[in-house]
Specification:
With 365 residues, the chain is an alpha+beta fold. The chain is 25% helix and 36% strand. It has nine helices and 21 strands. It has a six-stranded mixed β-sheet with strand order 6-7-8-3-9-10, sandwiched between helices. A six-stranded antiparallel β-sheet has the order 13-12-11-14-20-21. α2 packs across α3 and α2 packs parallel to α4. The longest helix is centred in the middle third of the chain and has 18 residues.
Length: 365
């Protein structure tokens, strides 16, 4: 068993707080992604798990064993770095088995494990080559092979795809997901790329300023962000935010925003816990807004700014009152700049947030 329990981790560099009282439980065999912008503490957290950073306080428990004071070699972990960190003067085979040799594993066992791992990562035909003879994607596979050949309890990855081009990253994401399914090691993966996080993680821990602000499945963090930061960080394009207010009207609870009113569905009304008036922030994803070319009930009047073809759909930028919104529309929708359109938000997809704190206060089920 290789569950990881992070208990009250704190790490500072002078006056800079890199990790702020961070606690997290990672299940055995789980693929957990630490996601956040540069400087949020995700790589420091990963390095602390690896034993490469000494904590100011807190405990790290792996498989029920307190490893807080243990050196990296005693923790049962392997790590893949952002830079491939392969030895240029060694053949691929020697790179893969380097860790096994350092541990004194017998030569026949080295060959057997190397062959198994090479087959798994589809680099069996490259074992006699040198790193300079490989592409970037092949060198990354070698780095991954060198880690998993050790059969670690925990596999740590620090932005391993960031140096690859877009098409190769797409391919390698699928390969890493397949590899995790077959190897089954508990995996902690650091990235700032939210597309990587959404596609790879069993759960995603979104970090900001050294803290985890939300941890959940890809669906949960995308559909029901815990606050405005998560909504704006997850998604491409990100969630739209509109200033608004709620008020009671004839026994109904209505939302006024961008010059229009929308009656709130029952789940959203219930989540407001009796609040019947006040300022609020409305969060809505671009794909949950319907565009009409003529006036429609409960619709927001807007003006088209620009239309961008992006393959399977178009991305429309519109101005509604003082707000600028992104809307996903079909490729056959024909509109011109400065043309008036009407936007209807899917009430069941609206996310309400406190205007002062930015924290989510309700969502439709």
């Amino acid at each position: 068993m290789a569950e990881i329990d992070l208990q009250g981790l704190r790490k500072t560099y002078g006056r800079v707080i890199a990790i702020r009282e961070l606690s997290l439980q990672i299940r055995d065999g789980e693929f957990l992604v630490l996601l956040g912008p540069s400087g949020c503490g995700k790589t420091t957290t990963l390095r602390a798990i690896a034993g490469l950073e000494m904590l100011d306080r807190g405990r790290i428990v792996i498989g029920g064993r307190d490893v807080t004071a243990l050196p990296p070699g005693k923790r049962g972990i392997a790590m893949v770095f952002q830079s491939y960190a392969v030895f240029p003067h060694m053949r691929v085979y020697d790179n893969v088995v380097f860790g096994l040799r350092m541990r004194g594993v017998p030569e026949p066992e080295q060959r057997r494990r190397a062959a198994e791992t090479a087959d798994l990562l589809e680099i069996a035909g490259l074992l006699d080559r040198y790193p300079a003879q490989l592409s970037g994607g092949q060198r990354q596979r070698v780095a991954v092979a060198r880690a998993i050949v050790m059969r670690p309890d925990v596999l740590l990855m620090d932005e391993p795809l960031s140096n690859l081009d877009a098409l190769l990253r797409l391919h390698m994401r699928a390969e890493l997901k397949r590899l995790h399914r077959e190897v089954g090691s508990t995996t902690v993966y650091v990235t700032h790329d939210q597309v990587e996080a959404l596609s790879l993680g069993d759960r995603i821990a979104v970090m900001k300023d050294g803290e985890i602000v939300q941890c959940g499945t890809a669906t949960a963090v995308y559909d029901t962000p815990a606050n405005r930061f998560v909504g704006s960080f997850i998604g491409s394009p990100p969630m739209n935010f509109l200033s608004g207010s709620v008020r009671a009207a004839g026994g109904r609870l209505v939302l006024a925003t961008a010059g229009s009113t929308v009656e709130l569905p029952d789940p959203l009304r219930a989540s407001l816990s009796g609040r019947t008036e006040g300022e609020i922030v409305v969060g809505i994803r671009p794909e949950h807004i319907e565009v009409a070319l003529s006036p429609a009930a409960d619709a927001i009047t807007a003006e088209t700014i620009v239309l961008e073809p992006v393959g399977a759909h178009q991305l429309m930028t519109v101005r509604a009152g003082r707000e600028t919104l992104k809307v996903t529309v079909p490729t056959d929708l024909l509109v011109q700049p400065e043309q008036r359109v009407w936007l209807r938000m899917n009430p069941g997809r609206i996310r309400l947030m406190d205007a002062r704190t930015g924290q989510a206060i309700g969502a439709a089920s």
